[in-house]
Amino acid sequence: MQPLRHQSLRRKLILISLITTGLTLLLSNLAFMSLEYYLTRQDNQNKLAVLGQVIANRATAALTFSDTQVLQNNLGTLKADPNVVRGCIFDAEQRLLARYENHPSLHCPMNLQALQVSRDQFFSQLFPIYLDQQPIGTLYIESSRGALLERFNQFVMFSVIILAITVVLAILLANKLQEMVLRPMRELSNTLANIVKNKDYSIRAQKENADELGDLVDLFNGLLRTIEAENQSLKTSEERFRKLTALSPVGIFQIDPNQQLTYVNQRWHDIHMVPENDLSLQSWFDRIHPKDLPQLQKRWNRLMCDQESIAQELRLTRRDGSHTWVHLLASPLHNSNGDLLGFLGAVSDISELKAAQIQMENLAFYDPLTGLANRRLFKNRLEKSVKSVLRSGNSMALMFLDMDQFKRINDTLGHDAGDVLLKEVAARLTATVRENDTVSRIGGDEFTILLTDIHHTSDVLVVAEKILQALARPIRIKGQDIITTVSIGITLTPEDSTDANTLMKNADLAMYRAKEMGRNNFQFFSEDMNHNILEHLAIEKEIKEAISRQQFTLLFQPKVSLMDYSVTGVETLIRWEHPEKGIITPSRFIPVAEETGQILEIGAWVLEQSCRQVSSLIRDGILPATAKVAVNLSAKQFTDPKLVEQISNVLSVSAIPPACLELEITESTLMDDVEGAIATMQQIKKTGVSIAIDDFGTGYSSLAYIKRFPIDVLKVDRSFVMDIPDDSNDMAITAAVIAMAHKLSMDVVAEGVETQAQLDFLRNNHCDEGQGYLFSRPLSLGQLHQFMQETRQRHRQENSYSA
After folding, report:
1. Domains of the chain
2. Per-residue pLDDT tens digits for 278-322
């Protein structure tokens, strides 16, 4: 038989009813039988007592006179009670005088002391006989228990029959009652089974009774309504997600924990040009370009094993054999308990962005005329080469070349001839150096050459002489043989310096010494050219005094919206008011402060004073409430571990809204440590401060990095703006930068706007803001007050005229 817990509820209810009823009846019958036995026994004893008392009273006189016949006659009355088995009368000396015997095995003894009483089957009592309160004898009567036991047995049989009938009735009644109780529960169970089978949460259980089961049905239906609402919400959300993914320009995919593709949208198929039934992850890996596959596999393993999100640009091979650039993002997907459900990813087609990047890099880093590296690319390679020299211990040479009399040739034969000459010079310079050396055109007729892995100075001499010889050969242009010469300045690292800017200055100084020496020669940098180093040391000393004596002051250059010419903010510029030398521009002392570390103290002062003063200007209504103050951060400031704490403290002390502070960071600063820069910028963004990239285009950054930076504003460097509209290359670069920034949801500020033509070009290309002398020079605090007053007055007049 199965244990009770495995039985059905119906059987449990019946069994409980039977046990309860049976125990109740059994205990009741036992109680009644005990009571019946006790009362019958008591009744028999009472009758026996009455009978004995009557006989004892009647035997008093006969016992007094020892009349045995009368005593015997008195005992004869016991025949009236068939249960009496014997009666004996004893005198005062306990001798037998009379007797009555109605049982073959029971006899009256001759004296009272010999009397044996059987208490198992008989009742017995002794009745003393008195005369004048003096005992004169004893009456003994003994009655059989047979009648009592017979009556008791009959009562027991009757009780058993009643108990059996009651149990049968209880079983029948329990069956009927449990059906009434269990039917609602069975209906509830059937309803639940129907819901599970059909997954239809609109089904409801029927409430039959207003009892506990009815309350359970109400709770069950309430739960169903909640589940139905959540299920409908989930279906709606899933449908919304599917529609969004179907309309999304991004390819979306989902992978289960077993690395099986479980979902992809239509855009995913379109990007990969694969049929809709192709959901093989291995097939997807097979389409990845071999050069991109190893790095992706490493990151993919980290995603699967360590659940680390990945982001990578890679090339995919389509079915037609073409390649497309995509940007892959993938992250683990968890439920609310943290259990892994799979992985969700997105693939974006960035082919157009890549093409634009390549075009921009060509425009930004290569000279369109000669195909050589331009100043920006050369500077980047120079900085990298200097770092390599410091690591390897080798030497490197930097040559600065300036063509002699190029302007005369250009003016005489025309610009076309000048372009031909520049191309030929570039070709001859390239032919004289190794493939791993860098030749660049950094200006109109200025070239630089970077010679790496130099073991002896004589190696540099050989190259310099080869250059002079190569350019000494005539160049035929427009039917004329042109002979051009160059002046070459040479500097070495690490012998002369390990700073890229210093090396450029050294080579430039040496080049001018070559011109002074009669042109068409080369000169090495020497200490006698290094007067600027002495100036450097002097400035370093004077900076310390300037900090302690508070000789620094701030100027503010307004930034103007190019849509309505309203002032949107200011850029803070530092000036040094030297008591003897007058105003010293930042270009003279900032590089020194950067190198010595003094820039941290100066930068902290600039940041705090800028926020304090602009906060006051906003409160006084001089600047609009949305005005932003742009503060430049130096490379050392940006890498300072205390920068974010410093920003938070300044915001608190100055009471300037975080949205009104914009920090400008140069492009080259970010590229030194991309991942570290991203982490720092993300911390800055948490303070509510916006970030701008200053002098964009002068560094050597990749769009792959730019779009990862949490940037709000791109500032187009003045070197691109200054030659607009005369230089078509600068115009193309500027337009491309503006378009790219807007595509990446960034605002664009153009620096160095000085002419109406530049302004018109920027407005036509939807540049957001501008700053430069066309709008205003850098202003002191008082001048800024006056400028804002005049600006408001001018706007009011314009509005009144338009009205």
Report:
1. 9-152 (3.30.450.20), 248-349 (3.30.450.20), 372-529 (3.30.70.270), 543-793 (3.20.20.450)
2. 777 787 888 888 888 899 889 888 888 888 889 888 888 877 778
